[in-house]
Design a protein that fits this description.
The protein has a single domain, classed as Invasion associated locus B (IalB) protein (Immunoglobulin-like, Sandwich), CATH 2.60.40. It is built from three helices and eleven strands. Strands 1-2-3-5-6-9-8-7-10-11-4 form an eleven-stranded antiparallel beta sheet, sandwiched between helices. About 12% of the residues have low confidence.
Amino acid sequence: MIQQMTQISRLCALALLAAFAAASADAAAPKVLGTFNDWEAYQLIEGGNQRTCYMASQPSKKEPGNVKRGDVLVFVTHRPADKERDVVNVQFGYPLKGGTDVQLTVGDAKFSLFANGEAAWTRGAADDKALVGAMMKGAAMTVIGQSERGTKTTDSYSLRGFTAAYREITKACGLA
């Protein structure tokens, strides 16, 4: 588990540094706020004092297991300066088939996310809020996507530690 979390740290740091470096020349390295079971929490400070706080996890199981993929992660992000909170993003590690939706399930709650490149997003802030609420109450999450080549993948995520990591990023971004 420690090796997996170290890998998550490295992947999250690289993914977010690449994204933020493109947007800001003075991007700093993310600060690890803590590891909470299967989730890690981070804070990134840019442009003086603009905070971005996020948490991430890797799937506990990827099916089919023989499909070659890049980084597979789920993020929840707060960007107070942009008035963004609870933004959920799933990275698939392959280009998603255009025009298809990604299916995400937490317990009995089902969500349909839109595909954009190698990532999937909810359709808006209300969906993000509902999804985060379901994740706080749930024990596991399943995400089903389809690649450009037509391969369907099912990723299973543990939600152990989700609420503690969420509270940490909310506090770190001054949203508590």
